[in-house]
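writing this on my phone so excuse typos. first protein, seq and then structure
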Amino acid sequence: MQPSSQQSPHHVYPDHWEADVVLRDGGTARIRPITTDDAERLVSFYEQVSDESKYYRFFAPYPRLSDRDVHRFTHHDYVDRVGLAVTVGGEFIATVRYDRIDERGRPASAPADEAEVAFLVQDAHQGRGVASALLEHIAAVARERGIRRFAAEVLPANTKMIKVFRDAGYTQQRSFEEGSVHLTLDLEPTAESLAVQRAREQRAEARSVQRLLAPGSVAVIGAGRTPGGVGRTVLRNLLGAGFTGRTYAVNRAFAADQGTIDGVPAHRSIGEIGEPVDLAVVAVPADRVPEAVADCGEHGVQGLVVLSAGYAEWGAEGRERQRELVRQARSYGMRIIGPNAFGVINNADAVRLNASLAPEPPAPGRIGLFTQSGAIGIALLSGLYRRGAGLSTFISAGNRADISGNDFLQYWYEDPDTDVALLYLESLGNPRKFTRLARRTAAVKPVVVVKGARHSGSTPPGHAVPVSRIPDATVSALMRQAGVIRVDTVTEMVDAGLLLADQPLPAGPRVAILGNSESLGLLTYDACLTEGLRPRHPLDLTTAATPQDFRDALAEALADEGCDSVIVTAIPWVGEDGEAEPGDGEVLATALHAAAAAGPAKPVAVVHVEIGGLAEALAAATSTVAQPRPSKQPSAAATSPRAGAAATSTGAAPAHTPSAPGPAPAHTAFAPGGGAVTATTGTDSKDGPGPAPGSCPRTGRIPAYPAAERAVRALAEAVRYAQWRRQAAVPGKVPEFLDDTIDEQGAADLIDALLGPDPDPRGRPLAHDEARELLGRYGIAVRPTLAAPDSEAAVAAAARLGYPVALKTTAPHLRHRADLGGVRLDLANESALRRAYGELTDLLGKPAELRPVVQAMAPRGVDTVVRATIDPAAGAVVSFGLAGAPSELLGDTAHRLVPATDRDAAELIRSIRAAPVLFGWRGAAPVDTAALEELLLRVSRLVDDHPEVVSIALEPVVVAPQGLTVLGASVRLSPPPVRTDLGPRRLPNY
């Protein structure tokens, strides 16, 4: 809201303080500065506040605001006097105000750095987290205006407000003075305040998603009068899924006496329904959506699924229409899935919601699926349906103008019905937040991501996101650092998801291979080596093997302590008459599952070629998805993707299964095209003993794949994820010795001096000596270079540095290009230096063009490159690779997010393909990797401590068997970019 022309002359209206926030109950509200135009809103708001709340605010009965009060509370200079309001539907529901004061508590101006703060929240909205959100925002505003402390006087009986201050996580002091509690809050963010803020963010955003996925009532706006069409299809799917809540059809074209449509009440508007509606599915043309949204907002609808197209995917006009849709919905406190969405599904038995266009809804299961593409969503649902996989929730967000994958990571993090999160993403609206949320979620359950539009260089239509300069390989590396399983195709995503949802995590990379085909076993063996696994030589059971042979071999492999996982390969076997024996799929699957259920909890996967009886076994199989899961700790040798409830081998059917009264199915099957082996978990006397003591009972199915490469790739992802998860349980750290050799304040003062009082927003590169001085404050020594504009200067420089020396050109087109002849090394004396100088100038050009420099020789070693940069979308990243054209050509560079820990640094230098060169390849002496890790940590620390350092390049860094030498350095400074991830909670505006 822009103020009128009469607004305070002291400062322009700070529109960057405006923000949409999610409250504790999942609803949204808007926070904005109060202006002179808000007088009537303020009076109306105050009239709706109880006398008790007014007393708590003013410490005395205060039934109404005087004209002077209204003027005071609506006129601010946005520097020393600031007021913020929380609005829903354009009306105030809460306010906060600060006034700058001096040490005696009197009104003051800068440089006074303390302010008195006071809140007032409408009684109807107390308990929604409004005051906590306001405190975050008013604190950020105060810090921006140079205020470092808040002072507040609170009546002892006002326990809610005292709790808001106490729980904020800021450093604070409390005292009791003259009948009130005096609170002083230090506004500098702390680790505790940031943790509190993010915990509140998680709860609020998860709740906002839950309101969309578990509504008590749903209205389909745009359900047609005749069968067919989008709205009528959604209505049919809602009814077909058995939605447990109330359902309504809404269409303004309905006759007044329409009555029902498909058996549900039909109305011309939401207002006509006369009962609360939690979720509205909007399926009307784009030009009619604003009317539908207003109808929903005015009658208390909590959220929208907008299937309508015609928004940002249609260009600039549609993009503005999309922004207005989000503004309108949020003004009423509603969140949106869409527009241009495919819909949502929640298979929880208490909900059974299918508010989508999915023709083949998936069975209930333990996989959560989010996709930004409707077409990909259809393909994924179809593939999961064919393979018998079950989903807990499905979301196709379309243009994801509001609700995004980040919100669903917040929800899945705590969702007990979801064990694995699968996401198809075409853009990352907030990469820093995504990485943070994915890391936290991956610590308790796998997160598998396919990133579309990786190489197009443009954002998919409809997705307005920050532009990232980092290549896709870097994005992939950063995702893996956060524990995300990044795969290339949706097929790989489903393959990995099935294994992770149904099998325990492997304890290591050791793989046993067994089967009745030597050739298929060898293909599997080769695939394991390609993926970095450690396969044992395949056990060939021969084509004469029976299902009992498979069972015995699998049981033996699982019992072997030298085996972490097992891949079973199977081809059809034929009888003596040359015909395939019937029922092979069912019989073999039963044998494999019996062995797996009886053995230690290790992952098992099956690679199969078409087996006789496959179709019959699949048709008869009853899915075992969404069963209770055994409890498995992440640190155990074999770990489950989630900690579930205890399970027993009783053979009982899952409680949610429609056929629960009958016995559990006694058969298992391979699904076609790579499905799963499913079976009861029970055993009897014929099947051998039950689970061994200390082992974990196995439930669910054994995933099956039609190709060895697909099975092995899925298993390899599980191995890498399990390793990451074990390491994440004991996070890395920044060694304390760095603190003794780092001058953080000195570096800050130097940076301020170099940028000057009015820095160029484009930034500035540092001269060589300036870069050396700044890096030196962080213990990074750069070997000095001396300019050599002529041969005499070169000789004088060498005399100062001492022989032997190197002569190098520093012209941009020759820098770091020894292959072009611009470097001469090991010049032992004056004559050699003069000769080299003449050769350079004769070969490459005049000294003024070449810009020669002289540098003392460094000990021989491996030339490497260390870089750090700040990407506007992803944040600060530190990178490492070997120097030279081959590494650049092959893209052999590793990346980690800043701040990097000791573990990150160690992994960074070992994750490039050329890493063996550092560890004694072909008999060479290993280099000092410890010194290299320390350098990486120092660079990371410098960039993390000083966001003004937007790029660093150390090239080359020569790493010798003892120590290292930084021969070249370039640094660029710029005014620090805005860190949206560290500010108060706010919803993005795309």
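second protein below, same order as before
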Amino acid sequence: MQNITFLDKLTQQLFADFDSDFSEAIVVLPNKRAKVFLLERMKKYADTTFFAPQIISIDELIKEMASVNVLDPVALLFEFYEVYKSVTPKENQQAFEVFSNWAKMLIQDFNEIDRYLLNPIHVFSYLKEIEDIKHWSLDLENRTSMIQNYLNFWETLPLYYNQLYAHLLSKKAGYQGLVYREAVNNLEYFSKNRSHLKYYFSGFNALNQAEEKIIQYLLKNNQARVFWDQDIQFLNDPYHDAGYFARKIKENWGYYKTHPYEWIVDEFRHQKDIHVISTPKAVGQAKIAGKIIEDLQKQNSDLTKVAVILSDEKLLMPVLYALPKSIKGFNITMGYESASNPIQIFLNKVFKMHINALKRNQKNYVYYHKEVVEVLSHPLLFHLLNGDNVVKKINRNNLTFFSNDTLRELQDKTTPFYELVIGKWDIPIKEIVERIQEIILHIKKYLQQIEDRLSLTFLFSMYKAVNQIKNYVDTYEAVATPEQLYIMYKQIADLAEVSFEGEPLQGLQIMGVLESRVLDFDTVIITSLNEGKFPSGKSNNSFIPYDVKQELGLPTYKEKDAIYSYHFYHMIKRAGNVYLIYNSETEGMNSAEKSRFITQLEIEKQPNHNLINSDYYSFIPDKAYEPVTIPKSSELLSELKKIATEKGFSPSALSNYLRNPIQFYFQRILRIRELDEVEENVALNTLGTIIHNSLEELFRPYLNQYLTLENMQQIEQKVEAEINSQFELIYSNAKDKLGKNLLAYEVAKRNIIHYLNFEKEAIINGDAIKILALEKELSYEITDERLPYPVKISGIVDRIEIRNNTLRIIDYKTGRVEKNQVRIKTFDGLTTDLKYEKVIQLLGYALMYQNEEQLYPLEVGIYSFKNRKGGFLLFNLEQDKHIQTVISPDIIDAFKNELIGLILEILDPKIAFEENMG
């Protein structure tokens, strides 16, 4: 460092003013965290033993002055709800979950009004008059009940404020603003009783009206000194936001008319290397931060004077994983946001699973598959829950909705923890909370066994939150349903930041923006320097409009931006090496432009500042995607031989190869299948299977006999029952068919009935139909001198029949097939073009049937359920305007010749499997 730090100067000042007797000194800092660093500075400065001065935060001082405790936000909501019910007629009272939506914002406004010592009656009457003006054009007779209730709300604000203030004060508790107002009210009394003490306010910047009044009063009575840390560059620049509050205080406080403003420093203009680094994505920032630290460690193993400041708390875990393994110690001086706490995520899912089950059917307790799978598949507790088998059964049986009893039956080996998680919540609220506590204790035991200390830290945060919930449930009556319990849980859990243990005085410092106040470092690495992160951007979570806030002197987003500006420039003020990392992504959810502070550094560049811009991007290949190519190794060729000689190639497998050789490789050789997942809506392939299987079962009793009209009528009567049976067997055993599934059911029924009508009409017209086989397996072995070994072709035929003394092989298709798709004019190139896939399939069946006894001419065709008017679409060969549908030996030989060419390509060691990008 080029100059001594702020805490060094403060230490010197304390010893100069008090020598080593600090009994009458009280140091007031912006936060508690700086206390440890100040004590360390004092310890190094002194050469004798001494009693340290009392060091407190500004909040502790205000609390002492007011003699009122600050309530946490959730307890405050409950107390406000009690007040709300006492002043609101019972018929107009809102449920707690509705009330809490607007009450949080209103408490925040009460807080601001009191912190800035405004007259609340004036503020509320002002707001009421604004709303009246907005609706001035409406006569009393024309006002709807909604508008009247809206105006009544504004009229009731003074009542809410006064009653809540009095109620909290009677309990010696309150929100922060109330405590500040009471501190100001007690200021004179407090000052007289502590006239012998000297308060040293150190490192402050933005103050509210209550703080200003308190500090000025103590200054006037010679009971305080204030030590700012303001750089002359910002103080003298009337447009620089980093000096915005300092200029106002220096100009407006009467104390500074006769006393010097302490301290004005000249640090910012000194020599600095400022590295501005852009990279896409948050993970990229973490990796770069880790690499910077690794390089710094090579230069100097002591990283005590290096700080990583995270503008976005979500970046903490990626940064920790990106740190080099050589770092032995570091200190995390920040809270980790609760939304990313894995234990909170798990409990969130448990809450949703049970609350939604109660909403669907309280008696039967019906679960939704996704909610259950999310709970049972939680990565941290997957083994403890032993839910893998349950998830597989849910997917295999296609269970969309199911009862609590079904969920219990799915688990082969239940455990106490599993029973705790899935146990019904149709019990009193207190018992639900106790069950959640038991869940946490089971998780604790498990994490201790596997020695997962990081997860135990997360768990402890939630353990404290659940204990807090139990206290509220015992104290307040507002929580009467699981939904209300969940609302309270979310509010408490969202505030339950995870605090990490560490040694604050040794090693690398990792902290948030606010934790960096008062502290100085040689090297500073700041991440997420983007608009919306640093500064955080505009937000107006208030009932008080912007122009009213401006008129009344309440802080707006402009003051908020000035606070961020001060923090930023303070962080880099004394640092010699500065690394500013921002997300350069310009599209997507997390896109943002670089922070205005980087632009400001570039535009207002100081002579001694060395700005170094760097862009880090992932390697981008010349092509977005390279087709996959799999050479045919000896092992692959051996597997191909096994398939070709044992199981055989099916016509659909050969079509698969024509469509995409890589798809053929994955599905037929590696036998990779799609993961079993629950189909919420019947997929097309599933619908096809239901129709195929239904027709098979309906016609099976009539094999090897000629169909009659009576037979067809018997079949028609069984259609609905058979489709129901197939739906339960193939799709889901749920009895209720709703939404798209009901439509799919009706489509299946309609298709089958239309097909039966088609067959009935054929019988009426004199067709003699005898079904010989259904879903029959056929195979044929091709031997040819061109092939390295005999190759088997195999497949399953949907239906084989004799119709009017002609043998027909029929393939059902639930998709649409046109007549031209089963017609060819030549065999040349038949097995090289995917448009002939239907022909390949039909002729493949014809080839496989060559092993069977053939007493009748053979035809092969398709029945398309989406092209009923086409009837049976028979394969036909068109030559010289002559159309041939009967399969002759010449057709079989010509097809076999083409098929051998395709098989040779598949078996050729020199031709790799290459992905078809078309």
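The chain has 34 helices and 29 strands. thats all i got for now
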